[in-house]
Automatic annotation (TrEMBL):
The keyword Mitochondrion does not apply. One of its GO terms (molecular function) is acyltransferase activity, transferring groups other than amino-acyl groups. The keyword Transit peptide does not apply. It holds the Pfam family Acetyltransf_3. The lineage of its organism: Bacteria, Pseudomonadati, Pseudomonadota, Alphaproteobacteria, Hyphomicrobiales. Residues 10-171 form the N-acetyltransferase domain. It comes from the Bacteria. Keywords: Transferase. This is GNAT family N-acetyltransferase.
Length: 171
C-alpha cells in the first residue's frame, strides 16, 4: 500500500514495528523536536505517531515515509504528507501538509532535499497543491522549502505559535 521510493542515496519506505527503537531515537533528539513541539517525544508518543502514519496510508492513500540510507540502512529521518486536522488559522482544509524531520548527524549533505524531492515528485502525480508550516526561526527548513518551490502565503496562528504557512503547486 505504501510505495517505496528510491533515490541515489536513500530509500523511503513504510514504517514497520521493527523501526520503533530507531524512531524513538529520532524523536527523543532535542534538536529534532526544537521547532516541533519544543520537547523530545516519549516512546508512547512516538508509537502513536507511527500508528498515525499507518492510518494515513490506510485511510488517505498518503502519509510519512521512513527514510534510510541505501548504503548502510541507517534511519536518517521521516518525510511525508499528512492531514493532522490542525487547528491552524488560516486552515489548511483538505490540502496535504508536507513535513520532515532528520537526525542532526545527517544534515548538511543534501539528503533532506533528496528525500523531500522524491516525496514531492510522487505527490505531484495526484496532488495539485501541498502546504507546510514552519517556525520562523527554523532557517534550514525555510531554505529547503524555498529550494523545492514553497512560497509563503500567510503568517498563521497555531496555538500560541505564529508559523509561516507556505504552499507549493505541483509541477
Amino acid at each position: 500500500m505504501t510505495p517505496t521510493l528510491t533515490t541515489p542515496r536513500l530509500i523511503l519506505r513504510a514504517h514497520t514495528t521493527a523501526d520503533f527503537a530507531a524512531c524513538c531515537t529520532l524523536w527523543a533528539d532535542a534538536d529534532v523536536t526544537r521547532f516541533i513541539g519544543g520537547r523530545p517525544s516519549t516512546p508512547d508518543e512516538t508509537w502513536r505517531r507511527i500508528l498515525a502514519y499507518a492510518g494515513h496510508w490506510q485511510l488517505l492513500g498518503y502519509g510519512y515515509f521512513l527514510v534510510t540510507e541505501r548504503e548502510t540502512g541507517a534511519v536518517i529521518g521521516e518525510f511525508g504528507l499528512a492531514d493532522f486536522h490542525r487547528n491552524v488559522i488560516p486552515p489548511f482544509g483538505d490540502t496535504p501538509e508536507a513535513g520532515w524531520v532528520m537526525l542532526p548527524q545527517y544534515q548538511g549533505r543534501g539528503l533532506a532535499r533528496e528525500a523531500l524531492s522524491a516525496v514531492l515528485a510522487w505527490a505531484d502525480q495526484t496532488m495539485p497543491r501541498t502546504v507546510c508550516m514552519i517556525h520562523p526561526d527554523n532557517a534550514p527548513s525555510l531554505k529547503l522549502a524555498a529550494k523545492l518551490g514553497y512560497t509563503e502565503y500567510a503568517r498563521g496562528q497555531y496555538g500560541e505559535h505564529t508559523p509561516i504557512l507556505l504552499e507549493r503547486l505541483a509541477g
